[in-house]
Design a protein that fits this description.
metal-binding; alpha+beta; 2 domains; binds zinc ion; Neutral Protease, domain 2; five-stranded mixed β-sheet; 22 strands; hydrolase; Aminopeptidase_N-like_N_sf; Immunoglobulin-like; Aminopeptidase_N-like_N; aminopeptidase; 413 residues; eight-stranded mixed β-sheet
């Protein structure tokens, strides 16, 4: 259970967590992740126990809680209160600026991949530690407050509202997302009745219609391709004015840089239409490949990104066959080969030993060379056999994690 109260004027936030922890072996310590948070030491409890030592290891983003005696075995609740800053670094829980009625305003946004959920709340911030999240936000009443799941209920107390979201399925911390600001939206529905919305700045929702159309088509296509329904009750896509990457596949709440999501019939170019389509199809593929079945550890990032890159072309080719998008797939393969020709190149799968190394492998080798290898595999095995293998991989590892070797085993079978 996670509670957060962002202050959009002071650019700070306060919060509390209650994490259900299973102690499976005798220990005196709890070791988890937290970074740039000020944790209220007197609030920390594991069951009724207070820690006698609270130590931060800043370089590792690790918080160590030492207790006087060994912890009771079995499930217990770890609770603590904390404060943080809505930073301007576009990672963790941060502020983005926008204009409304001639005035500059702040919105609160999260960007957690790869290892920045720990900047928003204390947690076990690794992809294999999946948990169900029950989030509550306290925000100004007039603002739109979005998260991974739909709102369960909201209560109003004058200028402040308390929004409680439905409990999520088991998910990794890097996919948790929150967006609080002023937005308008356009809405559509998949064939199975999943509500899809594209949120934009006030006055720009028309520019979300193209992405909405591609989004709805993508969810329909992937449901069939993976033979698995979309796992959440809704999908929102949001254009964020200040955004570090192109887009981020947060479960049920995908965030985008504005140019990666918005398309204006009157002024946008043909190439921007294509890149919006590819980006939306890529992020929505992750809702299954990445979010439902998640890489065991960042070493397997290539699998996540290579697959999403490849399958986004498959999807866009079926929506817009006149684009001959596979010919452009070769352009990105070339970009990857150029990087790969440098002496400092790396294999598509890279051993990651420390959280600080992860950022370095979000490159054309992981994405585009990875995608090219997947494409070779698919043409070697045949489209139908490959698709059936992907569907059984999805069923076998749903709500869990998998390694490259696990995919190989499914393909071999
Ligand atoms: Zn991706």
């Amino acid at each position: 259970e996670l509670f957060l109260r962002p202050d959009l004027v002071a650019c700070t936030f306060s919060g509390s967590v209650a994490i259900s922890v299973a102690v499976s072996a005798p220990t005196r310590f709890l070791v988890l992740n937290a970074l740039d948070l000020s944790v209220n030491r007197t609030s920390i409890r594991f069951q009724a126990l207070e820690p006698t030592e609270v130590v931060f290891f800043k370089d590792d983003g690790v918080l160590v809680l030492g207790f006087a005696k060994q912890l009771p075995l079995g499930e217990g609740l770890l609770k603590m209160d904390f404060n943080g800053i809505l930073n301007d670094q576009m990672r963790g829980f941060y502020r983005s600026k926008y204009q409304y009625k001639g005035k500059e305003r702040n919105m609160a946004v999260t960007q957690f991949e790869s290892v920045d959920a720990r900047r928003c709340f204390p947690c076990w911030d690794e992809p294999a530690f999946k948990a169900k999240f029950k989030l509550t936000l306290e925000v100004p009443s007039e603002l739109v407050a979005l998260s991974n799941m739909p709102v369960g209920n909201a209560t109003f107390a004058g200028p402040i509202k308390t929004v409680r979201y439905l409990e999520s399925p088991p998910m990794s911390t890097y996919l948790v997302a929150i967006v609080v600001g002023l937005f308008e939206y356009v809405e559509g529905m998949t064939t199975k009745g999943t509500r899809v919305r594209v949120y934009t700045q006030i006055g720009k929702s028309n520019q979300g219609k193209f992405a909405l159309d591609v989004g709805v088509k993508s969810l329909n296509l992937y449901k069939d391709y993976f033979d698995t329904p979309f796992p959440l009750p809704k999908l929102d896509m949001v254009a964020i004015p200040d955004f570090a990457a192109g887009a981020m596949e947060n479960y049920g709440l995908v965030t985008y840089r504005e140019v990666a999501l918005l398309f204006d019939d009157k002024s946008s170019s043909a190439s921007s239409r294509q890149s919006v389509a590819i980006t939306v199809a890529h992020e929505l593929a992750h809702q299954w490949f990445g979010n439902l079945v998640t890489m065991e550890w960042w070493t397997h990032l290539w699998l996540n990104e290579g697959f999403a890159t490849w399958v986004s072309h498959l999807a866009v080719d079926s929506f817009f066959p006149q684009w001959n998008i596979w010919t452009q797939f070769l352009d990105s393969t070339t970009t990857a080969l150029r990087l790969d020709s440098l002496e400092a190149s790396h294999p598509i799968e890279v051993e990651i030993h420390h959280a600080s190394e992860v950022d370095q492998i979000f490159d054309a080798i992981s994405y585009d060379k990875g995608a090219s290898v997947i494409r070779m595999l698919q043409s070697y095995l045949g489209a139908e056999r490959f698709q059936k293998a992907m569907a059984s991989y999805m069923k076998k590892y749903a709500y869990s994690n998998a390694k490259t070797e696990d995919l190989w085993a499914v393909l071999e079978k």
